[in-house]
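Researcher: Here's a chain I'd like modeled. Treat it as a single chain, no partners, no ligands.
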Amino acid sequence: MRKDASQFVDLLVALADFEHLDPPDDEARHRIIEDIFSKRWLSMFVAVDQKSKKLAGYALYYYTYSSFLAKRTLYLEDIFVLEKHRRMGIGWNLFLKCVSEAARRDCGRMEWAVLTWNKNAIRFYEKQGAKRLSEWYYYRLTSDKLKELSTADLPEQ
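Model: Modeled as a single isolated chain. Structure tokens:
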């Protein structure tokens, strides 16, 4: 719910800290809230600590598309649980909510990325039957490179 947006941002900052990354700046924080709650480009499940009524974790996802399956793919962007709430089944429940949502939406598959050093996550996903892909590499263009390439001249034929 939008009223939980600031708590979600706090979890996002905690995830950045866990992953040893810079947290989103103020503009990015505003954009992600708009993208979730206004534009609805992203969807989210949250876990609430019943004592404090504060968010304990979240799963953020969106859909991509498989041209060969001719079906949507649920892409799990983030799944995160605050450290003090781990080992209580919260991550498992958030993961299952995503699995159920993918099945409900008749997705052809569900995908996500895992940092190579996150051995706990790797063990968890493989225990669920997830297969690590070895035939695919992920590539990334940053916003600076996108701007640079978008104004580049097309090569002559």
